[in-house]
Description:
By secondary structure, this protein is of the alpha+beta class. The protein is 28% helix and 30% strand. 4'-deoxy-4'-aminopyridoxal-5'-phosphate binds next to α6 and β14.
Amino acid sequence: MSRIAFVNGEFVPHGEAYxxxxxxxxxxxxxxYEVCEIKDGQIIDxxxxxxxxxxxxxxxxxxxxxxxxxxxxxxxxxxxxxxxKNGMIYLQVTRGVSPRNHVFPPAGVKSSIVxxxxxxxxxxxxxxxxxxxxxxxxxxxxxxxxDIKSIGLLPNCMAKQEAKEQGAFEAWFVDDDGMVVxxxxxxxxxxxxxxxxxxxxxxxxxxxxxxxxxxxQQIKDQKLTIxxxxxxxxxxxxxxxxxxxxxxxxxxxxxxIDNHLVAGGKVGAMAKKMLESFYHxxxxxxx
Length: 287
Ligand code: PMP
C-alpha cells in the first residue's frame, strides 16, 4: 500500500512529496514539529500537541499554516488516507519559502506545512517494555530553548547515534553540574528508594512533554509522590527505577545507564504499572 503525504495544501504520493530548496526549514531548520501517537484508531493527546505547536510557533513568530480546526481535519485525513490504526502522525511547520536570507521573510510569505503518517506495529516495542532499555549520558550541548519543539535537532541526532553505536536506546543530556536534563527524544524520570517519582521541572530547559503531562496527571490521581526537580546521573544510577517518556515510547523502563545496571537490570514494578494504566489517563480523539 502506497503512503500519502500532505504538503502545503495537497495530498501527494509519499514518494513525490517535496518541498522547495529555499524552504526555510531546509536551509535554516526554521520550523517546528509535533509527533502524535495513533493507538487503536485514536489520536492520543491531540489537544496537548496542538497547544504545544501553537506555543512553539508563537515563540518563533511563525504563523499557523491554516486555522486550527482545518489543521486537525487534515491530520485526521492523513491518518485515514494512510490506513493507520496504530502508529504515528508527524506534523512540521516552517517559516515558508523565501530567497535565502537570515532575516525573516516579508509579510505574506506563507508557512509551509507537511503531514505524514505511518503504521507501527505495537508488537515492535513489546520486548523493549519487557526487558527495559539502556541509556548513555552525553554532555548537554543544545541551544538554550529546548522548550521550543524546533526541527533543529542535530545535537539530538548525534546523541541518539552515539547511543545506537554503544548499543543503547536513548542518550540523556547531562549538564555541567552532573544533572540529567532530558533524553534526545524523551523526558527522563527516576523513582528513588522512598518511592518518590522524580522528573525535572518544565522550567524552560526541557521540552514540556505531552506524555510527561499525562503521566503527571496519573501520578496525582493515584496519589503517588511526585517531585519535579532535577536529579543527578549518580542518583539515577542508584535509583530503584528509571524510565523515559515520549509519544512514541510512553513509559519505557530504563535498566542500564552507561555501564551501570539500574536495580540489578530488572524492569521496575511501578514503571510497568504506569505504562499499563497510561491510556486510562491520556486524552483520546477518534479519527
Ligand atoms: N524531549 C525531547 C527532546 C523530545 O524530542 C521529546 C519527544 N518529542 C520529548 C521530550 C517527549 O515529548 P512528548 O511526550 O510530547 O513526545
